[in-house]
Design a protein that fits this description.
This protein has one domain. It contains twelve helices and no strands. Helix 3 runs parallel beside helix 10, helix 8 packs antiparallel against helix 10 and helix 10 crosses helix 11. The radius of gyration is 19 Å and the shape is globular.
Length: about 300
């Protein structure tokens, strides 16, 4: 019963609320940078509600089941990841063997769902965007997994999220070490790609391929995808906090400090988005397989050396 509560309240409701709020902050800051006023605080929610009230159009010749099911698969994976993270953050003793691996696998499903939806629509631009998303996944997953391996090494080769949190509670945050800081930088860049934000919004590239895999989506399907992306704007930084920054504690001043850590991560994501141009897919793959993989490998070696 308690896990059902975590699934509904923490995994969906709280994650959706914070994600929508973070999306508003991102859009507001972006607007200010461009000397615009920006949207009101409820605009992200209003956009989703408006889409839910519109008709869902299915392209002729599309695979109906895959086209409609892909957004739900992506949203379900985000809810499950958020639930696992909250369970471990609230009670680190509730961890289970391999939950870190489960989270890493589940975090690939949103991107896979976008690929499935793009190919299922049978739109040429959507297929082009889906193929770009596939190449982008192949690019950032390698350095992402290598960088995540650093907290595993630091915590005594544990693949339990709870053990990683307990290690940081007793020995200090992992980002405070040289290997942890380098791995943190790598994961931040990979998260930027997972969120499909500039400079890695190559798959959707609205000015080039008009939304890419999402070009044929409307109504509830598009609403689910947008909600999924908004929730990822909370889940991915929260995952980063658990791995490198000791998670979110609720006692006294630690709660304020945890909120500031999350806001800081969203600020970093927003700054990267507003200070870089979009790169080509070949440039993105070279960037992740080159400098990011090298940095991630160096951080792993340093972690083995105790640095």
């Amino acid at each position: 019963m308690i896990y059902l509560f975590y699934l509904i309240f923490y995994g969906f409701l709280l994650t959706a609320i914070v994600g929508l709020l973070a999306s508003w902050i991102d859009r507001k800051v972006t607007a200010r940078v461009q000397y615009r006023v920006g949207p009101p605080v409820l605009q992200p929610l209003i956009d989703i509600v408006k889409l839910l009230g519109k008709e869902t159009l299915i392209p002729k010749g599309a695979s109906k089941m895959t086209f409609l099911g892909a957004p739900l698969a992506g949203l379900a994976s985000v809810i499950l990841v958020s639930t696992l993270l909250w369970v471990n953050n609230v009670s680190s003793n509730s961890t289970f063997l391999g939950d870190l691996i489960v989270v890493i696998y589940l975090l690939t499903i949103p991107s896979v769902s976008i690929i499935m939806g793009g190919f299922a629509s049978r739109n040429p631009l959507a297929s082009l965007g889906a193929s770009r998303e596939m190449k982008l996944i192949l690019g950032y997953e390698l350095p992402f997994v290598l960088a995540v391996f650093v907290p595993v090494i630091k915590s005594g080769f544990s693949i339990r999220l709870g053990d990683i949190l307990n290690y940081q509670l007793q020995n200090g945050v992992i980002i405070g070490s040289w290997s942890g800081f380098i791995a943190f930088v790598v994961v931040v860049m990979c998260i930027q790609a997972k969120l499909a934000l500039v400079p890695f919004d190559i798959a959707e590239a609205e000015t080039e391929i008009v939304g890419g895999p999402l070009i044929e989506y409307s109504g509830s399907g598009l609403a689910v995808y947008r909600l999924m992306k908004n929730m990822l704007l909370f889940v991915l930084p929260f995952f980063l906090m658990i791995l490198f920054m000791g998670g979110l504690r609720f006692d006294g001043i630690h709660l304020l400090w945890g909120i500031l850590k999350y806001v800081g991560l969203v600020a970093i994501i927003t700054v990267i988005r507003n200070t870089n141009p979009r790169v080509r897919i070949d440039q993105a793959v070279r960037f992740f397989w080159g400098p990011m993989t090298v940095l991630a490998s160096i951080s792993v070696i340093m972690a083995f050396l105790g640095l």
